[in-house]
Specification:
Elements lengths: L5 E7 L5 H13 L5 E7 L6 H8 L5 E5 L6 H11 L4 E4 L11 H9 L4 E5 L6 E2 L4 H17 L14 E4 L1 H4 L10 H8 L5 E5 L1 E2 L11 H17 L2 H29 L4 H23 L9 H14 L1 H17 L4 H26 L2
Parallel strand pairs: 1-2, 1-4, 2-3, 5-8, 6-9
Antiparallel strand pairs: 4-7, 5-7
This protein binds guanosine-5'-diphosphate-alpha-D-mannose and manganese (II) ion (MN).
Guanosine-5'-diphosphate-alpha-D-mannose binds next to strand 1, strand 2 and helix 3.
């Protein structure tokens, strides 16, 4: 048998009303476009979805994997990948919340050289129908946390989408963890790929059956995130940033004390000098401790980075001096204490700017 262009993996659990409609719509969308196969991975649904799928396979290129029990969404997808013969692999839900009509658009992007194409709710033109405030907030929080903890997700608007296609090489060598719901995230971290595209779609309302997303899946998701973050070393990095920030504060206080008390400098001047000492200190430390894997091409590039780093911390300088002056002169706070507050403000600013910058450059 000839290899199809795309294998669509459809995990199902109690979707017997939805599956026939979905399969028909996939056929209408793809039959004039390319060869395809549908792999239904059913977890022995009590409503006998597998039976419906077997029935459909008489009329459409549908293969059915019936597993022994409810082993989970991600593991179903991985099972489907193993059985798939297509050059491309696709994943979509059975409940019609993922419109098959955009499949040709997704495949076009692969033809444009992309390796992974995500059907996205959050790029321009995409949207979500009928979500309550609670689910919106939860989803936003989940996305934010994902981007903080997983660098590979930062450049992608919808890294938690359940609708996507990819070249089979992306996952062929990857060891994917079968736990949880967010298989795309797992692939973004462990797959081998270069370019990702996002195509907008409208995440529709579920008409038939119920969502299987339980509270347990949320804790699963948090554990999944933490595990991925550990794998890529991002937790360590964030903790190191914090340690450096606190240490910098000590350096600042030390210099400030020394300059005002022993060299008798005016406190505004010593504040500037001690801030610079703190900036250099944290620069050197983060170069050694956080970005040590970065290859230094030219020795001048380190100097250039130091200058850039200084520019970045300029806002911190203004904050430090502003607070110091205000507290000391206006509120009559002892200048050492004022400076401590000022430096804390600067540290927070510098920290935020650094995190922001690392976000941007990914
Ligand atoms: N085989 C199998 N085993 N299939 C499952 C299981 C399982 O344990 N749990 C769910 N499914 C199937 C459902 O039958 C459906 O086809 C699909 O997986 C999605 O399940 P839903 O319960 O409809 O999930 P959802 O709509 O809440 O979540 C979807 O949207 C999220 C984005 O908000 C999924 O696509 C998520 O991956 C996505 O993150
Ligand atoms: Mn759904």
């Amino acid at each position: 048998m000839r290899k199809p262009t795309i294998s669509l993996i459809i995990p199902t659990y109690n979707e017997k009303e939805n599956l026939p409609v979905l399969v028909r719509r996939i056929h209408e969308s793809l039959s004039n476009y390319c060869d395809y196969e549908i792999i239904v991975v059913d977890d022995d649904s009590p409503d006998e979805t597998w039976k419906v799928a077997q029935e459909l396979s008489k009329q459409y290129p549908v293969r059915v994997i019936r597993r022994e029990g409810k082993l989970g969404l991600s593991s179903a997808v991985i099972e489907g990948f193993k059985q798939a013969r297509g050059e491309l692999l696709g994943v979509m839900d059975a409940d019609l919340q993922h419109p098959p009509e955009i499949l040709p658009n997704l495949i076009e992007e692969i033809k444009n050289g992309k390796d992974i194409v995500v059907a996205s709710r959050y790029v321009k033109g995409g949207k979500i129908e009928n979500w309550g405030l609670k689910r919106k907030i939860v989803s936003k929080g989940a996305r934010f946390l994902t981007k903080v903890l997983v660098p590979q997700a930062r450049s992608i608007k919808d890294p938690l989408s359940g609708y996507f296609i990819l070249r089979r090489e992306v996952v062929e060598e990857a060891e994917l963890n079968p736990v949880g719901y967010k298989i795309l995230l797992e692939i973004l971290v462990k797959g081998s790929y270069e370019e990702v595209a996002e195509v907008p779609f409208t995440f529709g309302t579920r008409e038939m059956g119920k969502s299987k997303l339980t509270v347990g899946e949320y804790t699963n998701f948090l554990r999944h995130l933490y595990r991925l973050s550990e794998t890529v070393g991002e937790v360590v990095k964030l903790v190191r940033y914090m340690v450096i920030s606190v240490l910098s504060l000590f350096v600042n206080v030390f210099f400030f004390l020394a300059l005002t008390n022993y060299l008798n400098l005016h406190y505004l001047y010593s504040s500037i000098l001690s801030l610079e000492a703190m900036i250099l200190f944290s620069f050197v430390l983060s170069e050694m401790w956080i970005s040590k894997n970065r290859k230094i091409k030219k020795p001048t590039s380190a100097v250039l980075r130091a200058v850039k780093y200084n520019m970045l911390c300029l806002g911190g300088l203004l904050i430090n001096i502003g607070i110091l002056w205000l507290f000391t002169n206006v509120f009559n706070v002892y200048y050492l204490i004022s400076n401590f507050f000022g430096a804390t403000g600067a540290v927070i600013w510098n920290y935020a700017m650094n995190v922001w910058l690392t976000w941007k450059t990914r």
